[in-house]
Sequence to fold (443 residues):
Amino acid sequence: MVLVMTTLGFLIFDQFVSGAFEEKRERSTALLESFAVSSSIAVATQNLESLDSNMIRMAQAGGRLHGLVHVAMLDHRGRVLAQAYARDEDGIIMAPTKEVPQASFYEEAIQSPDGLWKRIVISDDSPLLAMSIPAVSGLRWGTLVGYFELTSHEQRIQTVGWSLIWITFAIALSMTVGLLFGLWRIVVRPVRALAKGASAVRSGDLSTRIQMDRSDELGDLVSSFNDMTGELEEYTSRLQEKVEERTQELNAKNGELEQVNRRLEEVVQELDKLARTDRLTGISNRGHIMELLNRELRRCQRTGVNFSVMLIDIDHFKNFNDTHGHLIGDYVLTETVGRMKGCLRNTDALGRYGGEEFIAILPDTNKTGGLAVGENVRNRVSASNYEDGDGCDVGVVTVSGGVSSFPEDGDTVAELIRKADEALYAAKSSGRNKIVQFEAKPE
Fold:
């Protein structure tokens, strides 16, 4: 009988521990999820100030209500974008905070598609619950990681365990005295019934009930057994309902997050396109081409290779607008861009510098090569007459260009553009429809 009570006590304690840890994990997950969307939006928009603010608010709220010790936002490579520690009312970082094992768990967290949780122990023997969730499902902007204090939680479990041990011991002792007192009565059948019922409960059949009409100690034990299995069955049923309800809520939230994720992706793509592209010609706008030019200059300064910059201007472009109208002028711009792109490599970059003026970046190309590319562009543009969408002959379009090269013509973006512009001015002054390379004037 003592073995039966011990088994039941173990089952009850195991259910309590599982439920307690599940409740702790659910509350911790809910805290991280409540800040996941706003944090992911801050990452997507590169608003680090907002992200830092989110981390601080989460640390403050989680430290008071859920035992949150440390929270961090990781990018897809596991680098920390922002983090915060829980602090008390005086602004002092709350214990435990010593040597939180971040690197190994961060690596596991970013590789887990559905989130991760595990119990860890830090250097001062303080237990922590380490958790991670993807900031947004679908397109994963980052991973939210939190460490929650478990000391008080495990102390409560330990207290319940000792209480259960004493209760079990007391019940077992009472039943032993009762059995010794009632040995003169027949006990084989009730004991077998109890053993069968305990075995059924141990195998998972919580609907087991022992039918026995007795008013002595065995009858009380049977009644207690039936009450206990009834409570276990009811608790299990409620737990299953909560699991199903939670699953439905999570599915609904996942659907909402997927919609937000799709919308964010569309907005990001649209903003990225607007930020980099000239709307009329479809090539890089001035801001983006200058960014590419600075990037190419830094690359060549590191590697020591050369590259060329070419400024190209459409000759007499104002006449097209004045003679044919701005729609034809727009057509001339887009057609000229198409012909120029046909002369460039995939590694080259073409952007609209302003109005009818364009700039081309030619990596790994010296000044002689840059001049050859310019001649190809000039010949390609003037090779045949332009015709608009209605088949109307617009005439021949010519371009003039100037070429400068790194490092012989300069080691800054401003200097390279200035010298390419001087060469372009020389091409314009000498009759247009020419490509001229910059030549330093003799001192």
